[in-house]
Specification:
With 177 residues, the protein is largely without helices or strands. 5% of the residues lie in helices and 2% in strands.
Length: 177
């Protein structure tokens, strides 16, 4: 029987049941013939299973092409194969800031871009760092009393020292006095 199999299928050096002529790894047993990157070498003997130019042993995504080895949060998985690139507990597919931690998914302006990665949280056209009221739209940047708060989020609009003591919340901000 072995003699018939040898003639019909040829030699099988790795004894995996696949003849050497059709075996994608003739020197390494791999009866499943797995070949992630569909090149001429099976995964059992392929030094780079995703053909990204980085050998599997050093590749942070050995089965997904990731030639630059990008790894946003510095864990063991490269971004190409990491389902939570910022490690905030939200899968990237449902994360409104997939590369910036934003576990609460806050999105003040409802633009589908979370506050953690949105340069303009209130969508008034002014970047948060230059906006005198970053979570309430204040496109004209009116500031009647000349303090650091724009009128739309200033409980004391006409008091530059904000000394009013109304204890009220204005647009989500508590009057500190």
């Amino acid at each position: 029987m072995d003699d018939v199999q040898l003639r019909a299928c040829g030699p099988d050096a790795d004894t995996d049941g696949i003849g050497d002529l059709t075996d994608n790894c003739p020197a390494n047993a791999n009866s499943d013939q797995a070949n992630n990157d569909l090149d001429s070498q099976g995964d059992a003997c392929d030094p780079d299973d995703d053909n990204d130019g980085v050998a599997d042993g050093a590749d942070n995504c050995p089965l997904f092409a990731n030639p630059d080895q990008a790894n946003n949060e510095g864990d063991l998985l490269g971004d190409a194969c990491d389902s939570d690139d910022d490690n905030d507990g939200r899968l990237d597919v449902s994360d409104n800031c997939p590369f910036d931690q934003n576990p609460q998914q806050l999105d003040s302006d409802a633009d589908l871009l979370g506050n953690a990665c949105d340069p303009d949280d209130d969508n008034d056209g002014l970047a948060d760092g230059a906006d005198n009221c970053p979570v309430n739209a204040n496109p004209d940047q009116l500031n009647a009393d000349g303090d650091l708060r724009g009128d739309t989020c200033d409980a004391c609009i006409n008091d530059p020292l904000d000394t009013c003591t109304d204890g009220m919340f204005v647009n989500g901000f508590e009057n500190p006095f």
